[in-house]
Amino acid sequence: MAKIHVSTTVNGDAVEFLCNPGETLLDILRNDLQLTGTKEGCGSGDCGACSITVDDRLVCSCLVLAVEAEGKAIGTIEGVADKDQLNVIQQKFLEHAALQCGICTPGLIVSVQALLKENPEPTEEEARYYLAGNLCRCTGYDKIIRAVLDAAETMRGAA
Amino acid sequence: MKNNNEAIAADNYKYIGTRSIRPDGFEKVTGRANYGADLSLPGMIWGKMLRSPHAHAMIKNIDTSRAEALAGVMAIVTYDDFPGVSSEIVAAGEGTEDLLDLARNLMADGKVLYHGHAILGVAAISKQIAEQALELIDIDYDILPAVLDVRDAMAKDAPILHQTMFTKGLSETPTTPSNVASVVELKKGDILAGFAQADIVIEREFYTPTVHQGYIEPHACTVRYDEHGQSMVWCSTQGHFDVRSTTAKLLHMSLSKLKVIASEIGGGFGGKTTVYLEPVALLMSKKTGRPVKMLMDRDEVFKASGPGSATRNWIKVGARNDGTITAMQGKLHYEAGAFKGSPARLGGMTAFTPYDVENMFVECFDVVVNKPKVAAYRAPGAPQAEYAAEMIISELAARLEIDPIDFRLQNVAKEGTKTIYGPKLKKVGLVECLEAAKNSPHYQQPLKDNQGRGVSSGFWFNIGGSSSVTLNMNRDGTGTIVEGSPDIGGSRASMQLMAAETLGIAADNFKTVVADTENIAHNDGTGGSRTTFATGMAVVEAAKDVIRQMKSRAASVWSVEVDTIDWVDGVAINIDSTEKLSAAEICATADRTGGQISGQGNINARGAGPSFAVHICDVEVDKETGKVDVVRYTAIQDAGKAIHPSYVEGQYQGGAAQGIGWALNEEYVYNDKGILQNPGFLDYRIPLASDLPMIETVIVEVPNPAHPFGVRGVGETGIIPPLAATAYAVSDAINAPITDLPCSPPNVLAVIQANS
Amino acid sequence: MPIVDYKVPVSVDEAVIMLKGCNTAVKILAGGTDLIIQSKPAGSDPLTVVDIKSIDSMMTASIDDEGLTLGPAMSCAELTARDDIKSVYPGLIEAAYLIGSTQVQGRASIGGNLSNASPAADTIPALIAIGARCIIAGPDGERVVAVEDFVVGVGKNCMAQGELLKSIQVPPPEAKTSDAYLRFIPRTEMDIAVAGAGVSITMDSEGVCTAARIAIGAVAVTALLVPAAAAALVGSKLEESALQAAAAAASAASKPISDRRGTADYRRHVVGVLVKRAVSIAAQRAQEQ
């Protein structure tokens, strides 16, 4: 079985890789591109730990074939901060202690970024439903939702 | 007392009680932090376990020839590759484990005991080839009937899991093997006399299902065996020293030949206090000479890592008409899974401890069934037993027409109350928690139609144990706290704050490092809510050691006796001359005054403070479908002292959410053959962001006299009260008794229909 | 490795040729949220996937006087953002919105939901209720199949190898007609339907129901159109007795199983509750027109 050559961009960088046709984008990101910030919690789209964006659309990278990345723009947690300057969402997660173990955090931050791009002023309920696919077992979500609403407010203020 | 996520200040600390940014936060919000699955090594190969498709079967024959012929397969390991295992009790997690059971759980020894039980491991050059190879292994089974519930397991002609297991704790030595591993009795007073004094007695049997800790990170490790030098294990664990000791014991290695590095850990809740992969991966590495990586898939986590016990607990409580409880009795049956060792006894010790009642009697049964071997799950054993007890307490209060908080206050455990397990309680904060609950805005809020309210207390011991900390001072006066407790929820930040408070140096001057097994002395695992208590105490000891050294250096600089030196806000002061030397100045010149400064705090912490909690839950029930929505929730708990209030609140909220999940929707569903039907997050339904309201918290602070800052430990207690608080709220909303969890829509509708 | 080949046609004709000419088992890839999970087991047969997302007509939707023409591979996220479609078929959009998480909606498509033919698929009862039809392209030309006939069993649709769901068409609704879809799940999100109900209701100016289509999901091997439930409503003013009769008819028509998501009895009961509630929502929407 011949490997397929894929040209794509990841966090703005032009990237090329070889993959088997059945390999998931998650496996390529983690094992071939060493972008281990994207986490695997379930491999079936039920936990959101592997959330990334493909052409600005939020998806689970465990449910995307790597070959489908051809010509697309991939966004991962590694591209959220501007060098060492944290994004507002990341900063608010820290200020609100919105993480305990931190395994769901990269996927959540990518998802929150997508949420606030689509809806800069979400209600608590809208935020909770948008993020229902990002499981967190540590926090009970309270501080995550507070961080999201605070980040949204801060970003609106800055805009 | 202030509400709404504000701590109650009991003292006047400078750093403790502030909400500092956790020192490992940057790595964790940028994806740079490395977890169990994130390490790859040059030349690394992949291992996968073959798991039993049956719940109970003898293995008649294993044929691996087709798999071995597959290109890329490098080794197959089985139970026979262990270098000889005998029964021996070893420390593991919060308790002990039998090494023989541990080995037989890692890979079956001729008999599989649950669906998903590991049988052998395959190592191959890629994960895909390892998975393909598993399909090429042929096993002949002799399928045996499965026992899936304590009732079946204890029935007269039940299939026996272990022919060598005889019930311990019986008055007469048994002559036939049994699925009951042990029976333990706990008592105080005279239970019969207690019930004789009662005007009202309620008894019921309660069921709680098998539940999983549900950490989002599956078990994972990368290992390298080195016959001549030092072998290495990188893994996600709550206790890397325990991984080292059990693995070394199984593989007949000395501790110095095995280094275990704790990766960042993506949740554990007790479930990562034992080993499932690491010794097998090392066997693979030994056979192949290559580093080996093993990752569990999510379905393997559910099928084969330790869940929490399902239970059938019968509780009987008697009270006088004036509200005085006279007797509390329980008969507790805990599923251990395939091997002995359920927390039945801990259930017995905790069930009635929130109450000061003269007469108590509990029998605790540890029962094996054809399900995965249970592991610790946040306050192991307590939620199930306290759920049953608290449901009866709430029902009694209703029958006596006494406010449920007043009823609890009337019978409350307090300093001096003798526990069923022996010692008297020292200073505890249950009265304060109940009063805070009663005064909370939540408790004052009236309910709407179809809503109900539940209140529950919860008790957990918390533990101390062995912790070792080194505090290395740098030449610029900053410091590195080297600890050995994996940071599962922000404990690095607490360590910083305690070092800062002790030394009088601002917290951001300290870096906290979780060291591997060769860079710090032994530490017990992160469990039992012990880290901030015990490791925190070790940090304080190390910081005091640093102060002693700093003072002695200052004394030598000034050529005075050390007892003329005072230490204030990070500065040494000569009381006689008011000369001053800051920590930075002392550190900068340390080479000239006797070498670099490093403090040591190696302790075995005693006196962990029990913690009590009280939760209030309001639910709304859709009476046509049985669906339950949690509409308001408040968690109140005695922290002793909240070092970092945000992470204390986080523990309360997270415990509440897990407990709500346990109460409402979480359960292992097996078919009658013992095959797990829901090994994934799709159908093992943990709470989602959209399922929960904000979880209000009240931090009560009744300091623990045994800790320098009053810490009790906060991690576990919060999962105990939600079960009864939530289930009783449902019961209140539908005006019918709930006994069985979960309160899933079909179960609740069935209760509604049966009572209408 | 079960997926051994990956093809990307840019037209329906090219896709049909690829599908027909394949020498392994072949599956059509749209959002992949079912396909990629199903193809994971190491032991399954070699599979070629044909990714139809580069065919423009598969990825667009249009609504006009002729009704709705829906590209089957368009993601639910794109579809649910279409207010023009939502204003006419709110029930269909509700169903699309309920499929999985935000992440899953970024990929999952209505054509995939339909073709995957899960008994619990949310969009199937919603599509049946509004009378949607499948346009199937194949080597011998096109054919048209009603959605209720498209799904033939658990995981089975009526297409032969070489055929492709080209578009989904929905006729324009009559005046004062609207739809609704409700499903029951244990949590608020992320679960598979325990039962589902898609309804379309037409009202007259007197508040009398003049036409109805009731479809139920997750209570039989395929979604079911329940004419008896509709008959119980037509001619009534949707009084409680009519709603109860429709609910009873839906419960009676269902043939559910017991599994990890609910018992047969529970499903039979809940599907009636959903029908009752969905009818009230759709009727109110119809009357507000």
From TrEMBL, chain A:
Query: What positions belong to coiled-coil segments?
Result: none
Q: Which UniProt keywords apply?
A: 2Fe-2S, Iron, Iron-sulfur, Metal-binding, Oxidoreductase
- What Pfam families is this protein classified in? Fer2, Fer2_2
Q: Mind telling me which SUPFAM superfamilies this protein's record contains? A: 2Fe-2S ferredoxin-like, CO dehydrogenase ISP C-domain like
Q: From which organism does this entry originate?
A: marine gamma proteobacterium HTCC2143
**PANTHER family to which the protein is assigned, alphabetical:** OXIDOREDUCTASE WITH IRON-SULFUR SUBUNIT
| GO molecular function (one) | metal ion binding
CDD domains reported for this sequence: fer2
Protein name (Swiss-Prot/TrEMBL)? Xanthine dehydrogenase family protein, small subunit
Task: Give every 2Fe-2S ferredoxin-type domain span.
Answer: 4-80
TrEMBL record, chain B:
One GO MF annotation is: oxidoreductase activity
Q: Which InterPro entries match?
A: Ald_Oxase/Xan_DH_a/b, Ald_Oxase/Xan_DH_a/b_sf, Ald_Oxase/xanthine_DH-like, AldOxase/xan_DH_MoCoBD1, AldOxase/xan_DH_MoCoBD2, AldOxase/xan_DH_Mopterin-bd_sf
Supply the Pfam families for this chain. Ald_Xan_dh_C, MoCoBD_1, MoCoBD_2
Matches recorded under SMART domains: Ald_Xan_dh_C
In this chain the Aldehyde oxidase/xanthine dehydrogenase a/b hammerhead domain maps to 30-145
- Return the Gene3D superfamilies for the record: Aldehyde oxidase/xanthine dehydrogenase, a/b hammerhead, Aldehyde oxidase/xanthine dehydrogenase, molybdopterin binding domain
What is the protein name stated in its UniProt record? 4-Hydroxybenzoyl-CoA reductase alpha-subunit
State the organism of origin.
marine gamma proteobacterium HTCC2143
From TrEMBL, chain C:
| UniProt keyword annotation of Flavoprotein present | yes
Protein's name according to its UniProt entry: Carbon-monoxide dehydrogenase medium chain
FAD-binding PCMH-type domain spans which residues?
A: 1-175
Native source organism of the sequence? marine gamma proteobacterium HTCC2143
Q: Which domain of life is it from?
A: Bacteria
Question: Is the keyword Flavoprotein assigned to this protein?
Answer: yes
Q: Name one Pfam family in it.
A: CO_deh_flav_C
One of the entry's Gene Ontology molecular-function terms is: oxidoreductase activity
Record InterPro entries: CO_DH_flav_C, CO_DH_flav_C_dom_sf, Diverse_Substr_Oxidored, FAD-bd_PCMH, FAD-bd_PCMH-like_sf, FAD-bd_PCMH_sub1, FAD-bd_PCMH_sub2, Mopterin_DH_FAD-bd
State the UniProt keywords alphabetically.
Answer: FAD, Flavoprotein, Oxidoreductase
